[in-house]
Design a protein that fits this description.
homodimer; Farnesyl Diphosphate Synthase; two-stranded antiparallel ribbon; 72% helix; 1% strand; globular
Chain lengths: 338, 338
């Protein structure tokens, strides 16, 4: 099967598992309002609901593919898949509060619609719900494996908060040391993808060493994705137009090309440290950044990390069909063009 | 041993287990700031730190006592005890954000000191840390028991968020239906105490039926505590003085006596529904509320719930010494005078 065929198979099943997890846990009418906020955020209810509001469900798909690639039946991994998507969405609800983002997928965010108090609490409810859902896999899996899965996801959550801590801490700063950049994106992006891949491997029957290979696959994939995303945020078509919210340069985002240039200490670095970038500077500064080698460096990093991911995948995957689909997924990241 | 002697034994051990959980999880210097916020909130560091800033550690003490009462060695339950205290404190950090409370134990709250973004994230980090800590008990306990403990605590967390949802939802309302009042305090106060008691029983070696008795003990104890607290908030000495922040009547808090009187629909109810209570009305309205039977009702409920707790304890406890200390703890709640 191709990646697309897997997706077509997985997506309705993921949605159903998510809905079971959410709706079965809150059947008392007095909690309708809490359920409503969760269902709204997940794109099922309210204004603008529908597939476009549901996100791409990348993490549960990755988990299911890894479980199939480990030689398991992906259906056995559906509850774990729902759990990781709940964790991802708990973190989005809290991120939106922390970043004061008022829209997501073109809709009001939970805090913008219901206020910060309900939004903080709704995120917490989804956090708890995620682990309840994961713990329910104990019906099909032995206790020590469920416990391992819980441990993996809990560690990913903790790394997520560590990455977020760095992100918030550096918000008012124009610089970030290289090592802290990697720790930040490692926590914010790679840790959960790595956890998804490892849990997929675990539930699919991979032994410890292969589980670790799945973990490395997910982690490298996450970093590669971030590097590519950072390049797109500066040299992508939309970014270069310099529309206020779409260029990472104007937003002062400390992305990999910028961190690289700051380390070089050249002309871009001097301009960056002097203060916010104006709209008319976006195109020339992107060109300067390219001239200083930041684009080559970033794309090379994305490529290197993708290679590392594919190498780990070779050690991890057993089922050739699902393995090929995962390979396709990894390579598609690099093809996301400018 | 008396309750006091148990406390003297437990408290330093709880503090040490908590510190191990927090400090061992974050040894990289880049996360010092995150560790600092947690250590500040737990009363170990920063302005005003010390025993007075640490809270009473009621939940871990309850857990340890129950584990001893179940016939176990309380030292084996120390990591679980640290985990429940971390959960309690995660919820306090988020509650303070949701209620916009600027001080706790006479010190600035985390959000008031570091801003809402860091505070939301620090609460999340403690949530994840709590389950990491609990999962570490797998060194001494079989996997299925650790999984049970995780399940119990996760359910308590979910109920906590459900209770909090009701609390926030009714914030702008002068009334709350009786059933929702009990669901709210059940979630906010009783669920975690019940979880502590049950995990203590589980770790102490109690079989399923006795674990359930421990759960009922903790749940009834929590509701009894809340009823007594609600009475104190209206007829307690400090409350009657009507100092702005200390009378539940002036704060518009929907406590058990008020919910009872609203159900009666008498004179108090009419005044309450008409709008906020002024300071000079506090004493006469407290007297009116008493006249309408709300004090008798509330104290009778506190007594009934304490009896239910003690009855459950009789079915649960095996070790007479620790059982007697738990009995002392329950009865002390009722003696908290006006």
């Amino acid at each position: 099967m191709t990646l697309q065929e897997y997706s077509d198979l997985f997506l309705p099943a993921i949605e159903k598992a998510l809905q079971t997890a959410v709706f079965e846990s809150m059947d008392a009418p007095r909690f309708d309002g809490l359920r409503e906020m969760i269902a709204y955020h997940l794109g099922w209810e309210g204004e603008g609901s529908g597939p476009g509001a549901q996100g791409k469900r990348i993490r549960p798909q990755l988990l299911l593919l890894c479980s199939a690639a480990a030689g398991g039946d992906w259906r056995d991994a559906l509850q774990s898949a729902a759990a990781v998507e709940l964790i991802h969405n708990f973190s989005l609800i809290h991120d939106d509060i922390e970043d004061r983002s008022e829209t997501r997928h073109g809709r009001l965010t939970v805090w913008a619609k219901w206020g910060g108090a309900q939004a903080v609490n709704t995120g917490d409810a989804m956090f708890a719900l995620a682990f309840q859902t994961l713990a329910r896999t104990s019906v099909t899996l032995p206790a020590d494996q469920v416990l391992s899965a819980i441990n993996i996801l809990q560690n990913a959550c903790f790394e997520l908060t560590q990455g977020q801590f760095l992100d918030i801490s550096y918000e008012t700063s124009r610089t970030i040391p290289f090592a802290d950049y990697w720790a930040m994106v490692g926590g914010k992006t790679a840790a959960l993808l790595a956890g998804c891949a490892q849990i997929g491997g675990l539930v699919g029957g991979a032994e410890e060493a292969r589980q670790q290979a799945f973990y490395r696959f997910g982690y490298s994939l996450g970093l590669a994705f971030q590097a590519q995303d950072d390049a797109l945020g500066i040299w992508g078509d939309v970014a270069l137009l310099g529309k206020s919210t779409e260029s990472d340069l104007m937003n002062g985002k400390k992305t990999l090309p910028v961190v690289f240039a700051l380390e070089q200490g050249g002309e871009f670095s001097r301009r960056w440290l002097a203060g916010p970038i104006r709209q008319d500077e976006v195109a020339p500064l992107a060109e300067l950044l390219r001239h200083e080698g930041a684009e080559d460096y970033t794309l090379a990093e994305a490529k290197r990390l993708t290679q590392a991911a594919l190498q780990a995948l070779d050690q991890a995957a057993e089922n050739r069909g699902a393995g090929a689909a995962l390979r396709e997924l990894a390579q598609r990241l690099l093809r996301r063009g400018y």
